[in-house]
Amino acid sequence: MLKQLLARKTDFTNDDDLHGNGLRRTLGPWGVTALGIGAVIGTGIFVVTGQAAAEHAGPAVLISFLLAAICSGFTALCYAEFATLIPISGSSYSYAYATLGELLAWFIGWNMVLEYGISASAVAASWTGYFTSLLDHFGMHLPSTLSSAPLAFTNGHLVTTGALINLPAVAIVLALTWLCYVGIKESAGINLMMVALKVGLIIIVVVAGYRYIDTANWHPFIPAQQGPDKYGWSGIFRGAAMVFFAYIGFEATSTAAQECKNPQRDLPFGMLVSLAICTILYLAMAAVLTGLIPYSMLDTVEPVVTAVRAHPQLDWLRLVVEVGALIGLSSVILVMIIAQPRIFMIMSRDGLLPKVLGRIHPRHRTPHINTVITGLCIAVLAAIFPLDLLANLTSMGTLIAFVAVCAGVLILRYTSPELPRTFRVPWAWVICPAGVLSCLALLLTFEWFNWALMLGWTAVGLLIYFGYGYRHSHLRRQKNAPQAIVVEKP
């Protein structure tokens, strides 16, 4: 049994032909970059920035963003190398399967459900705040019972709020699920349009708001310690763990590997360029927000609108912010709904999930069944649970996956040094351990109840694996597994 749990998958030949219709290759390097920006620029810039500044780091949230960006940068380099070696849609699940064995691969894949599915729910929950603000702008009001989660997380406990359902969040998720159902080309085209619009609107906000910055709001830059994770350097590190949620989207590009025209070229380009662009935008927006008003006032569901409202001269920006936020958050949800079904598809083709999850629609060429399941689950979570709980679980699941990828690059350098790598992590013996250690450092900042929820999530995943995946694993049935990693050139 132990041998099976540690068994590595070494044949990554593109097996679309074995499963009927394959995915359609339509994405080039800038299409992949747009997916990355679409997934990264969203809740982090429009919601989490304000919460991290008010609750943890103060104006030093800029340092938090830099720390999270450095951690993500180490990981992005590792992802880029793996993407050239294993250009399929399994992302860190497939990378772990090649280096760490089946059980850990399942563990990583199960955590990726947190990364994509639950992060989309968190973004949808924050989408509601800007949507209701936009309605208020035009004199229309949605009852709070229909626009907020019925549960809230307070002092480590789930409590009821009296609300019924977060209806706007459900509506946007279902609309984008339909779009993902009909095809990657249509979804990517709309995502590209949304990315261009939201980046343009963010630049407008930064340029216009810069004139009204009061540098007194940046002093003290690192506020005095007021609690274990509030202000001081401990608050900066806790803020980094919180805003790390903002960066995880770059990894979603790797799930589109089988829809790239040239994945060995397009994926590294898209990952690294999108991460660089997004880091610059995050730092600029964080500087403007904390400069416009005192950081303590940013703990709202729409902090950018809150900052703009404080300056009558910027009142015209409110509509720009609301529209930009809705577009930006929508593109994040879209990319996550694209990513999650493709992880299920690869796990199904490995036998770890039922065969039905590996099917491709004969006309739309999308994993349609997975897309519907993903969309419905995201809608339910967004309708019930609050943003902060969902965001923390997402960050934890992602950090664990990132640790596996950074370690996996070194393992594969040792076990298969002869493999051709069109992209190589520079100074791998420095970058990879730095990636592992930085991710672990951020993981240690989460509170005990987050770990308790993560352990519960892991227990459910292990029950599914030993109840179904272990017995149906295709790798388990192979008597003579290949000894070298094999991938098909697109």
Say which CATH homologous superfamily is assigned. Answer: Amino acid/polyamine transporter I
Overall 3D shape: globular
Number of discrete helical segments: 17
Q: Which CATH class is shown?
A: Mainly Alpha
Order of helices and strands: HEHHHHHEEHHHHHHHHHHHE
CATH topology: Amino acid/polyamine transporter I
Largest sheet: spatial strand order: 1-4
Mean pLDDT: 82
Provide the low-confidence segments as ranges: 14-21
Q: What is the SS-derived class?
A: mainly alpha
Q: Summarize the amount of helix as a percent range.
A: 55-70%
How many domains would you count in the coordinates? 1
Biggest sheet, open or closed, and with what strands and sense?
2 strands, parallel
Could you walk me through the main structural features you see in this protein, from its secondary elements to its overall organization?
The radius of gyration is 22 Å and the shape is globular. A two-stranded parallel sheet has the order 1-4. It has helices at residues 2-5, 29-40, 43-57, 61-85, 91-99, 102-137, 167-182, 184-210, 232-243, 263-292, 303-309, 317-349, 368-384, 387-415, 428-443, 448-472, 474-477; strands spanning 11-12, 151-154, 157-160, 486-487. The protein is built from 17 helices and 4 strands. By secondary structure, it is an all-alpha fold. Helix 5 packs antiparallel against helix 6 and helix 6 (102-137) crosses helix 13 (368-384). The protein is 65% helix and 2% strand. Residues 14-21 have low confidence and may be disordered. The chain has one domain (31-480): Up-down Bundle (Amino acid/polyamine transporter I). The longest helix is centred in the N-terminal third of the chain and has 36 residues, at 102-137.
